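User: Okay, second chain of the day. Same drill as before: sequence in, structure tokens out.
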Amino acid sequence: MLSLTLVILAAGTGSRFGGPKQWAAVGPEGESLLEYTIADAMAAGFERVLFVIRREDKPTFRERVLKRLLHHVPIDYTFQEGPDLAERTDETDQAFMPGGSAAALLCVRPLLEQQAFGVVRADTWYGRASLERLAEYLKRVHVYWPPHFSLLSFPVEAASGARPLAPSVRCELDDEGDLKRLDVEEDTEGPVQLSAHAYGFSPAIFDFLEEQLRELTEAQEEGQVRDEFTLASALSKMILRRQARIELLSVSQPALSIIRPEDVEPMQAHLQACLARGEYGAPLWPARDPAAITALAARRASAGS
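Assistant: Same drill. Structure tokens below.
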């Protein structure tokens, strides 16, 4: 049976927020935004959650996530640190570690060699429909080869007062609905402008990211490297090289994010409206009986195998 994992990238520093925004309390019981993503993911069919965090955030992560969700969700985590590439031998190569979502994703490779998985951000509310769309894709296309990946796109305007994800890429589609152009530069013109911060992958993605990281390492030696190694830029390069099919999965509901402190109150209001509509329980993680905890342990062992 196919087991789906959701990777949550939670290694940001939150410079505009004034600290790591992924741990900010936005729910009525002190829930962080990522807890709502996890609740939606589990309802959508994901069975395991894998975090990428900073090593210095481990105490906060244990307190804000592991202790709260221990008896509800199978959770693993790893640190965003430089992956070991066999070709790196000198001190310059060993020290080079770009930031960005692609660099973060490479850190989970040892834990995801045989599983299809989705990738989302910790500072964003996606909604259950988005994660259901992602889970449906992963169940449909989960083979290692030929490589076929997906990119979720969201409307760039929100009806509520919460902040929608800003447009991040411009793209062009072919006749089959796959991306034939993906531009990540802000001043680039293109037919479609969209917000894209969620992805669906098979393990084949890691070989392509390793290849591009080696290229970045070589460019770094010549002083030409960019500060960020992002998934959007990596996919753009794969499209240009015709290395993989990238399917665009459109979602009708905006994804909402927390960027600055003033975004917290509108997000709280949005979640209160979701609660009023019955989209989430209150509390989000009710106490569980011993039988349910035993069943979760079995699921955790199965998902990690």
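The domain at 5-304 is CATH 3.90.550.10 (Spore Coat Polysaccharide Biosynthesis Protein SpsA; Chain A).

User: Thanks, on to the next one.
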